[in-house]
Design brief:
The protein is α/β, with parallel strands linked by helices and 293 residues long. The protein is 41% helix and 24% strand.
Length: 293
C-alpha cells in the first residue's frame, strides 16, 4: 500500500511539471504471427506511446496466448495487446480493463475465425472433418480453437473435440497454422482472417490453394488491456493517447504502417460475441483450463 501511494505521489509530481511519471510500462504481445514480424509491427506504436506518456513502453512477445494470464505476475506485466478470447479470459480471471483497439484500414474493428482446407480436398462439411489432421493455434484463441470447437459442437454435437481428429496440433501462431496446411502437414487449419489476408497479399498463390470451409461471428480486433490496479491517471493517459493518435501527422503515419486508421474505445460489452462462442463450445471462461495438451 505504501509503495502504491509513493508511486501515485511521483505520478502527480510529474503531472505538475507537464509530463507523466517516469517509469516503465511492460506490455505483453500475443504471438499472433512470427515473433519478429510482431515486434516490427508494434515497435513504432510503443515508441509513440513512450514519447507521449513519458513512460518507457517495453513490449514482450509471449511464447503462447495463455501466457498473458500465466505470466502477468511473474513477468510483472502492466498490460497486453490481447486477442479476443485472451481478452475475455483476462477480464474474467484477472479483472483486466480493456482500453482501446485499432480501427482497421478497411473501416472494421473486428476479425473473424476461418476453418481452411485445400481446394479439391473433398472436405466440405463438419462431418468430413472427422479423422483428419487439424492445425490449430492455441487453446486460448478465438479463431484458432474456440470457433472450430463451437462449430463442431453445434453442427455435429461433438463433445470430444480432440478425439474427432486423427491428429491435433497447436502451431502457436495463425500464420504457422496456415503454413502447416499449405505444406501438407495438416488437412485443416484454423486461423484469423486478417493474418490469412496479409499472407495472401504477400503471396497470391495462397488464395488459389485454399478455401474457407466456415467462418465465425466477428469479434474485437486485438485490444490493449491493463491490470486493474494500474494507476487511473496512467490508464486515462494511455487511453487518451491511443484514441487521439490519428489526430497528429506523426500518429497517423505510424497508424498507417501499423495497418489502422485510428484506435477506438473498447469495453467489456464488445466481448459478448466471444462469450457467446464460448457458451456454444461448452466453455466457462472463468474456470477454463487453456493449457495445450
Amino acid at each position: 500500500m505504501i509503495k502504491k501511494y509513493a508511486l501515485a505521489a511521483l505520478f502527480l509530481l510529474a503531472c505538475a511539471s507537464g509530463a507523466l511519471a517516469v517509469g516503465q510500462l511492460r506490455i505483453g504481445l500475443i504471438p499472433e504471427q512470427n515473433i519478429f514480424k510482431q515486434l516490427e509491427r508494434y515497435r513504432p506504436v510503443g515508441e509513440y506511446l513512450s514519447r507521449e506518456t513519458g513512460l518507457e513502453v517495453k513490449f514482450t512477445v509471449l511464447s503462447r496466448y495463455g501466457n498473458i494470464i500465466d505470466t502477468f505476475e511473474s513477468e510483472k506485466l502492466d498490460g497486453a495487446f490481447w486477442g479476443s478470447f485472451t481478452g475475455a479470459l483476462s477480464m474474467k480471471k484477472l479483472g483486466m480493463i480493456p482500453i482501446a483497439r485499432p480501427l482497421n484500414l478497411d473501416g472494421t474493428s473486428t476479425y473473424f475465425g476461418v476453418i481452411f482446407v485445400k481446394k479439391g480436398s473433398g472436405i466440405k462439411s463438419a462431418k468430413d472433418m472427422k479423422g483428419k489432421r487439424i492445425a490449430l493455434v492455441d487453446r486460448a484463441t478465438t479463431a484458432g480453437y474456440l470457433f472450430p470447437k463451437a462449430f463442431l459442437r453445434e453442427k455435429e454435437g461433438v463433445v470430444d473435440f480432440d478425439g474427432y481428429f486423427s491428429k491435433v496440433h497447436f502451431a502457436g501462431s495463425h500464420d504457422a497454422a496456415i503454413k502447416e496446411l499449405l505444406s501438407g502437414e495438416a488437412d485443416i487449419a484454423c486461423a484469423k482472417n486478417t493474418v490469412y489476408e496479409a499472407m495472401a497479399k504477400s503471396d497470391p498463390s495462397i488464395a488459389e490453394k485454399l478455401e474457407m470451409l466456415a467462418i465465425s461471428e466477428t469479434v474485437p480486433s486485438n485490444a490493449l488491456g491493463v491490470r486493474p490496479d494500474l494507476e487511473k491517471a496512467v490508464i486515462d493517459k494511455l487511453r487518451k493517447t491511443l484514441l487521439g493518435m490519428g489526430d497528429t501527422a506523426e500518429g497517423a503515419a505510424i497508424l498507417s504502417v501499423f495497418g489502422a486508421k485510428s484506435f477506438i474505445p473498447t469495453g467489456e460489452k464488445d466481448y459478448s460475441p466471444v462469450l457467446t462462442l464460448a457458451k456454444k463450445a461448452g466453455i466457462d471462461p472463468a474456470t477454463y483450463s487453456y493449457e495445450n495438451k
